[in-house]
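Form P-L/3: holo structure prediction, ligand nicotinamide-adenine-dinucleotide.
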Amino acid sequence: MKVLVLGGDGFCGWPCAVNLADQGHDVLIVDDLSRRKIDIDLEVESLTPIVSIGERLKAWEETGGKPMRFVHMDIAHEYQRLLDLMLGNFHLQVALRDGGATM
Ligand SMILES: NC(=O)c1ccc[n+]([C@@H]2O[C@H](COP(=O)([O-])OP(=O)(O)OC[C@H]3O[C@@H](n4cnc5c(N)ncnc54)[C@H](O)[C@@H]3O)[C@@H](O)[C@H]2O)c1
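OUTPUT (holo model):
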C-alpha cells in the first residue's frame, strides 16, 4: 500500500514510518521540520541526539529496509501540493504535533 506519513520526522511519525516500510509499504514521509526548528530557535537539544531526516533515511536503507521518500512540506499552508500527493492515491497516517496544523 502507498502511505503518506504526515509529521513523519516526529516522535510518533518516524517509528510509524519505519514500521510501515518494514511491512513492505511504499512510504512517503511529509514533514516541514518545524519541530527541529523549534529546538534551534529555543537553543535547546534533545536529551538523546536526533540525526537529520536525511541521515535517518540513509541509516534505515543501510539496515536493508525498504527505501522511504521524504517531502519537505508545510501541510497547513501548501494545500495544493498535499492534494497532489493525496490524489496519487496515498493512504494517510497522521502524526502531527498538537496545534501544528489546522486542516
Ligand atoms: N509523543 C507521544 O508520546 C504521543 C503519544 C500519543 C499521541 N501523541 C500525539 O501524536 C501527535 C504527534 O506527537 P509527536 O510526539 O510525534 O510530536 P512531534 O512534534 O515529535 O512530531 C510532529 C511532527 O509534525 C511536524 N509538523 C508539525 N506541523 C507540521 C506542518 N504544518 N506540516 C508538516 N509537518 C508538520 C513536525 O515537524 C514534527 O516532525 C500529537 O498529536 C501527540 O499529541 C503523542
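COMMENT: The chain has a mean pLDDT of 88.
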